[in-house]
Records
---
Amino acid sequence: MKRTTASPSANQTLSLLRSVGEQLEGGHGLIAVDKSGRILLATQEACRLLDLSGEGEGHTLAELGADFRLLRVITACRDAEAAVEREIASAREVIMVRAFPVQSQTIAVIVLVRDETRLRRLERVRRDFVTNVSHELRTPITAIRLLVETLQKGALEQPEVAAGFVHRIALEIGHMAQMVEELLELSTIESGRQTMKMEPVPVVELIRTVDRLLPLAEERLIEVTVDVDPATPPLLGDSRRLGQVLRNLVHNAIKFTPPEGRITVSARPLLEQSRVELVVRDTGIGIRPEDLPRIFERFWKADSSRQRDGEGSGLGLAIARHVVEAHGGSIRVVSEPRRGATFIVEMPAAPRQAAETEPG
Ligand SMILES: Nc1ncnc2c1ncn2[C@@H]1O[C@H](COP(=O)(O)OP(=O)(O)O)[C@@H](O)[C@H]1O
Ligand SMILES: [Mg+2]
């Protein structure tokens, strides 16, 4: 391999640059090229970020299959003798390259490479979040505005009609209140400020918190069965938050199961791992395979559920996952369209207390 010969001072500059390059943290890389585009120095990370094949040094960037956008940045920088920067975005990643001209006999251009993929993704998530919140709030607000306008235009004079409208206004306000509560819960969890009261929670008591949803199930002619293995030990966790998780799973099961369907809430010990498995199974509409990876995302709802106005914000499962994982547990789903859905939560069991030791 033919190496570019460099004067001692150039060698010193290069080795200085090399040690700078080695200090860079992950996601940052450095390249130095000569006038003809031959690589004098390329850090491993730079090669990885720019998909440069093989041992870079001694070859030209073009030989290594560099992206044409990178080649143009370097040429432009060299010719204009001015700094040039540009983003090299692909479907998977966003790489920022900044080229600086150098007044030296050997090095012509130094390029700093930075992976901005994560940053961009965060920016997008934040933008989407604001759009989603606005959209979700607009629907109930529009409904309330129309109902109030109709009341003002005379519906108030007809007590029966008016009562129905007021009832619907109350429902819409209920949806908004639920959503604001879920948003607050989510932001508390994400800020890491949430305080969890960890205590042993008897599983039967936890499952009892879904009792308040039974009238809703009954109204929809859905049968709810509870099946707890008597050997199930108490969980270790925050009973209020775990109750919320379980209620959301059962509420979903009710929402997405047609009349005459069945829901089973069950629990059993996974003794070897000192864990407990909680399962909520329904016989409802199920989830399409392509939707399965997305259902735990914030605001995500299947198209079929989007059409049901005011039925939910799509935050419940995102919160459920946060809460369960914050307890050192896991949540997953198994489902097929029209064959129901099964949500499986695995939680750590509470350590056995001295008071509970075996009799004898
Ligand atoms: N048991 C279920 N059966 C079918 N689809 C479900 C079930 N649970 C959740 N989903 C899908 O996942 C989406 C997200 O659920 P969730 O985060 O609780 O939001 P929400 O209940 O507010 O719609 C639902 O809108 C629905 O499309
Ligand atoms: Mg829900």
Note: The chain has ten helices and twelve strands.
---
Amino acid sequence: MIFDPITICNMDIQNRFVRSATHEFMAEKDGKPTSRLGDLYEVLAKNEVMLIITGYSYVLPGGKSDIFQQGIYEDRFIEPYLKITEKVHRYRSKIVLQIVHAGRQATTSEEYLVPIAPSKIKDAYSAVMPREMTEQGILEVIDAFTRAAARTKKAGFDGVQLHCAHGFLLSDFSSPYTNRRTDRWGVQWKTEQE
Ligand SMILES: Cc1cc2nc3c(=O)[nH]c(=O)nc-3n(C[C@H](O)[C@H](O)[C@H](O)COP(=O)(O)O)c2cc1C
């Protein structure tokens, strides 16, 4: 079965060997993917891993969680990613870009002093108290994810995966622990009795 082809949405995949999203930290400091990253994916593709999910790629400079993490926050990233997807497609493998905003776990800098989150709940991992996002801020992040997904397509990826786990921004929106909002972006979890 593991050698059988499978179709996921419009992706015809030649077998079921999948490389789960795993950060590589092979980008330049500004998030531009390097050719080393392409070389790594090429080895996977050459060895018949027919679906590769990339490491998490940040959609805004303020949504980065680690140095040398890859980004997709500007159009100038399309070209280097295109070179990578072309390499992978030579072996008929598919490649999906995972996109993320690190939210409360974002790296702080002079430019990005306080990380953002749906609510002001301290991050247990970093002990950082985030800033609650405004309506306008939420719309900007949605726009950044949309633009990142569009770049992904232009860069030749076969799909895009949203990173909705590990305490990053999207997972914080879906948890009632980290999302205490009462506006339209809040989460209401109903019990069976309700
Ligand atoms: C070094 C390392 C980096 C990872 N990077 C990511 C990542 O960028 N995005 C993600 O969604 N998961 C990431 N993961 C989680 C893996 O994709 C996977 O879900 C996890 O290792 C559990 O899979 P397993 O039970 O097959 O080991 C990472 C895991 C490891 C060990």
Note: The first helix runs from residue 35 to 46.
